[in-house]
TrEMBL record:
GO terms for molecular function: 5'-nucleotidase activity. It comes from the Bacteria. The lineage of its organism: Bacteria, Pseudomonadati, Bacteroidota, Flavobacteriia, Flavobacteriales. Gene3D superfamilies: HAD superfamily/HAD-like, Putative phosphatase, domain 2. It comes from Flavobacterium pallidum. This is Noncanonical pyrimidine nucleotidase, YjjG family.
């Protein structure tokens, strides 16, 4: 007999909230404010993979939050060959975090799918993002009202894919894992993390829809209707 899904857990960044687009806009504002004379496209080409590398280190507790915020900028500027003092890097790292949630671009279909799913399921967020920023992102993009609970790694004490963050989120939502499904863009953190915890999962991958055998996957959020 098929288990009935009652609750859906979403990742936020790169799944609903268009991190790369909003991040580029935040950097544009901060660089203009402080007169950082770099070509934004050249900077982002270098910064994006560096940022992903630092987030993976942070995900597995190999660096601190402060090391993440400083290190990704320092390494990007070094690779770009742009001379900048440490004090300015620290200022930029703080300002960037403040500007980031002011932009609210969502992935295409986000509001439509949340409206559709919210009529059938209880919706929740599980994120490794910083508590201070994620709430602002949800409010400023006007999707906060769709979610019953918001679990972040700071309050849970661990980060995805650690099973404890999923257990924490399930407890917050007062639901059994058998009745839940996790949706996110990160195969390891979101999908395999949830599966290893005993939850079902769907990978959101707009770049390569057919990624891993036996993993449900969608290239567009609206395609979630095929599963839900």
């Amino acid at each position: 007999m098929e288990v009935k899904v009652s609750d859906i857990f979403f990742d936020l960044d790169h799944t609903l909230w268009d991190f790369e687009k909003n991040s580029a806009l935040a950097f544009r504002e901060v660089f203009m404010k402080y007169g950082i004379d770099v070509n934004l496209e050249d900077f982002l080409l270098i910064y994006i993979p560096i940022n992903l590398k630092y987030w993976e280190l942070y995900q597995y507790d190999k660096i601190t939050q402060d090391q993440l915020r400083y290190g990704r900028l320092k390494e990007a500027f070094d690779q770009l060959g742009y001379e900048i003092v440490d004090d300015m890097i620290n200022i930029l790292s703080v300002e960037y975090i403040q500007y980031l949630p002011q932009f609210n671009h969502l992935f295409e279909g986000t509001e439509e799918i949340l409206e559709y799913l919210s009529k059938k399921y209880r919706l929740h967020i599980i994120t490794n993002g910083f508590h201070e920023v994620q709430g602002n992102k949800l409010r400023n993009s006007n999707i906060h009202h769709y979610f019953r609970t918001i679990t972040n790694s700071e309050t849970a004490g661990v980060k995805k894919p650690h099973p404890q963050i999923f257990e924490y989120a399930l407890k917050q939502a007062n639901v059994q894992k058998e009745n839940c499904i996790m949706i996110g863009d990160n195969l390891e953190a979101d999908v395999l993390g949830a599966i290893n915890c005993g939850m079902d999962a769907i990978l959101f991958n707009p770049e390569k829809p057919a990624t891993t055998e036996n993993i449900k996957c969608v290239a567009h959020l609206i395609h979630l209707k095929e599963y839900l």
